[in-house]
Amino acid sequence: MAGIQLKVIHRKASLKQPKNMCGNTNALRVTIAVWLLQVIATCAQNSVCQNLAASPTLTMFVDQLPIPPAIHLTNATLSVGAFKINQKLHRDLPPTTLYAYGQTISDAMYPAATLEARRNQPAHVYYTNNIAGPHILPIDRTIHWANPLHGGVPIVTHLHGAEVQSYSDGHPDAWFTQNGDHGPTYTTQNYTYPNAQNPTMLWYHDHVVGITRLNVLAGLAGLYMLRSDQDQCLTDLFPYGQFEIPIVLKDLQFWSNGSINFPNIGDSPATHPQWCPEYFGDTIVVNGKAWPTLTVHPRCYRFRFLNGANARFFNISMSNPRLSFTKIATDGGYLPPGQSQVVKSLMIAPAERVDVIIDFKNLTPGSVVYFNNSAPAPFPGGGFNPPQTNSVMQIKVAAWPSGTTNFGNSSTDVMRCVNQASSGYFPSRDFNGSLHRYLTLQEFDDANGSPIVSLLGNKTWNDPVTELPRVNSTEVWEMINLTPDAHPIHTHLIHFQVLNQQPFDTTGFSAGTCNITIPFGQSGTCFTGPPIAPAIYQTGLKDTAIVWPGNVTRYGMTFRSASGGPFVFDPTTEPGYVWHCHILDHEDNDMMRPYKVLPAV
Ligand SMILES: *[C@@H]1O[C@H](CO)[C@@H](O)[C@H](O)[C@H]1NC(C)=O
Ligand SMILES: *[C@@H]1O[C@H](CO)[C@@H](O)[C@H](O)[C@H]1NC(C)=O
Ligand SMILES: *[C@@H]1O[C@H](CO)[C@@H](O)[C@H](O)[C@H]1NC(C)=O
Ligand SMILES: *[C@@H]1O[C@H](CO)[C@@H](O)[C@H](O)[C@H]1NC(C)=O
Ligand SMILES: *[C@@H]1O[C@H](CO)[C@@H](O)[C@H](O)[C@H]1NC(C)=O
Ligand SMILES: *[C@@H]1O[C@H](CO)[C@@H](O)[C@H](O)[C@H]1NC(C)=O
Ligand SMILES: *[C@@H]1O[C@H](CO)[C@@H](O)[C@H](O)[C@H]1NC(C)=O
Ligand SMILES: *[C@@H]1O[C@H](CO)[C@@H](O)[C@H](O)[C@H]1NC(C)=O
Ligand SMILES: *[C@@H]1O[C@H](CO)[C@@H](O)[C@H](O)[C@H]1NC(C)=O
Ligand SMILES: *[C@@H]1O[C@H](CO)[C@@H](O)[C@H](O)[C@H]1NC(C)=O
Ligand SMILES: *[C@@H]1O[C@H](CO)[C@@H](O)[C@H](O)[C@H]1NC(C)=O
Ligand SMILES: [Cu+2]
């Protein structure tokens, strides 16, 4: 960044309105002449941030919603490889080249097979890399990235939401390539998952430093279901793939030949030739099909949502106002007994999960329901919402086949199972007297007002570790958002709870004319209002939560297992953990920090 004038921005949207680099001379304000010439010369094949050629128009609701197959983890080590594949993502779209996990190249797919784990039965997964370079998406070599000596496509897999020892956590520098190059914190490809935590839905995805956005967008992602005896009742009522429906949301943009259209000219190309602040596609893909359709019968279904997008937030609602979501679990497990939430919309930021029951019992066969999306992109400012991104998928209600005798259980039966599943996981937590850490979220611009980097705590990924909590301790991390965007901030190893959020004066804070440690109402405070209880979508045990602009969001963190007991492994060993923004374009540049857990005193 030497020589670039850094300017902290406060109120300007990080995403400028789409600018037409190819047609609108007013937008051609790239200051470096070389870049200007390259842009003009290569306009036909290149695409610029937020100005991608529209995807081919695809007929909605023609493909069945795919259900990823389930693989049950056993005591034997499961081998999971990363492969380059071609996959049809819509009836009318030529196959798309993807990277995907599989046991072999022939069963590799996006999303990958769902791994089924049993609580307290440790599993071993041996990851292999079968992908030769060059990368199918453009790498930006000016941001900090793996940069393997002999080329290729580095991978490393993180099991998101898992309580694991850090050598199995998919540390961003623990990457490896097909031909044996590896990053500085690499020690093994044989990962151990203790599965000792609360039952919940996790997901496994790539986490390589500097190219996570490319590897995940290319398809390296799959679900991981951790089940226990305690939620067996629910598992029995809602068998996976039949009445338990995983929903992996994502947005992509396509060329007419089916390839992913990813910008290869950045927003501030003189600084970063490719990097863009956020990737948004105009096509909504669910479980690997664009705008799919699902047929249900009139009964209760369990839907397990994951936002697997790089940057797009989803706010999901149903087109039939009589239907509601009964939310039973979040990232870290079930809501406490009796605290399920009946809601009309689901706000889901990248990497967040929600587990809901929907009762279709009172719908007449032949009815059609849509899952719609209303979240502005970027969130909450908006600017990239082509109308088709408001449609997600279709659900058709079909009559029971003749001869059916089991019409599903009553909602009373369902809630009895929910309460049974959730009992016992909620150790009381008290954050009074905890250590508070004050951590800024900041975005920096070039002289033209284009974003070039985002930081946490004003530190880069490479700066020495500053967050050093102790085993068993509680801490409050105050996320001070100075940017115009909401950021889904994710912590590895532990689940936290959002304690509250509080509006503050971002300008005064940055100028140093007010103090963020002085309570609202007292002289010198930065706060402009009292703390506000977490929104309904911020409640429950979380490993990723929405940190709104203009607010300080407080994470109550306990450095022991979310199930209440101690970790069943040593969390203090190398290479340690990370916390970061889960907008993958931000995480890659440079909104990610290492953190390490110290022994209890
Ligand atoms: C698998 O390991 C568990 C302990 O984690 C043990 O109880 C069980 O017997 C093992 N099963 C087999 C088939 O070896
Ligand atoms: C992976 O590690 C586990 C535990 O250390 C071991 O039992 C297993 O054999 C290893 N698997 C491979 C393929 O190395
Ligand atoms: C698909 O089309 C794009 C845009 O013309 C091109 O850059 C890309 O190389 C094509 N991909 C394949 C696999 O032909
Ligand atoms: C989500 O959408 C619903 C309408 O469907 C709206 O009432 C709600 O405010 C939205 N949530 C957020 C956080 O914007
Ligand atoms: C929801 O999606 C359906 C199907 O595409 C569409 O007809 C409807 O207008 C959408 N509703 C909203 C509120 O966006
Ligand atoms: C589900 O319904 C069946 C049939 O009425 C009943 O036998 C069973 O106990 C119910 N399951 C639960 C978990 O309530
Ligand atoms: C901890 O703080 C909360 C809210 O500030 C308060 O309601 C509660 O009484 C405190 N608990 C103890 C043990 O001091
Ligand atoms: C951020 O860190 C730089 C040094 O790296 C320092 O010059 C600057 O004042 C810091 N800004 C804030 C807001 O702390
Ligand atoms: C953490 O706390 C629990 C209970 O409070 C205790 O049993 C355990 O020994 C502690 N662990 C360490 C490493 O201090
Ligand atoms: C804010 O106030 C605290 C004490 O409440 C003090 O330690 C700190 O130095 C102050 N910070 C600034 C920037 O004035
Ligand atoms: C704080 O966040 C809320 C949403 O939770 C938002 O409505 C409000 O505008 C934010 N406050 C400021 C000062 O930006
Ligand atoms: Cu971010």
UniProtKB/TrEMBL annotation:
Domain Plastocyanin-like: 281-372, 452-599
Record-stated family: Belongs to the multicopper oxidase family.
Pfam families: Cu-oxidase, Cu-oxidase_2
PANTHER family: BILIRUBIN OXIDASE, CUPREDOXIN SUPERFAMILY PROTEIN
Gene3D superfamilies, per database record: Cupredoxins - blue copper proteins
Molecular functions per Gene Ontology: copper ion binding; oxidoreductase activity
Organism: Ceratodon purpureus (Fire moss)
UniProt protein name: Laccase
